[in-house]
Amino acid sequence: MRLPHPPSPERSAELRRRFAEEARSERPDLSALCLLIGAEADGGLDEAGIDAAQIELDGLAGRLPFRPGGPRSWAVALRELLGERCGFRGSAADYQRLESSLLHEVLRRRRGLPILLSVVWMEVARRAGAPVYGVALPGHFVVGFGAAEEQVLADPFDGGRVLAGADAELLVAGATGAALDPSMLAPADPLDVVLRILNNVRAWAAARPERSDVALWAVELSLLLPSHPARLRYERAQLLVERGDFLVGASELEAYAEVVGAVDEGAAERVRRQARAARAMLN
To answer: What family does this belong to (predicted)?
Structure first.
């Protein structure tokens, strides 16, 4: 991937306003949220590029057969189109690339992480009228078709392979060593999908300290979601301090300590000490 330049501060502010607005809408649009993440990561993704990505998803949906049948027929149709004819799939190397978490790049490269490939599957299938949803298995995201009693799972990372009865159990066991619980097969909420994508971006950046800029925008977008872990506020404060914004970082550490102090005064005092250390860096 070319080294992307960040959007301008004005463009970033507009993207974040739209992201927050979409996330709080009655029916959040998953593809729109993912493309706004992409635009925050890559200043080269302008409005024309966002529109082109949506048009490509529309076009792919138009290539599906009309109402092919039940859940399994939908899964097979998506596999044949996206996995076999279009070549969407993933590999181990994709976990090392930031663009594997950016929808516009996944559409361009036909490669990505399991969750982004699943977004492609879901958005194409949804446009065609399929009963599709994401399934957030521990460590490996897949897609589901149909109601619980007739559910069919497919693995977009493996080119859309339709999973047999024991395959989901093996995926969970390989990722966690634990048994598959039926609750793991429930449809994933779109905003949970977005948060998981941002978590992947944060994990990518955490392994690359020189990309704390990526970690910061990923945390800040996560904080715009209606529901998010409170600890993200602490992570943002730490990142600000690491990037030399000592005063703002210290203030946010102190604000987080006030929240934590209601349940764990010892932890709150540790955070206050971090805030004092950050302020001392200015002396």
So the answer is: Belongs to the UPF0162 family.
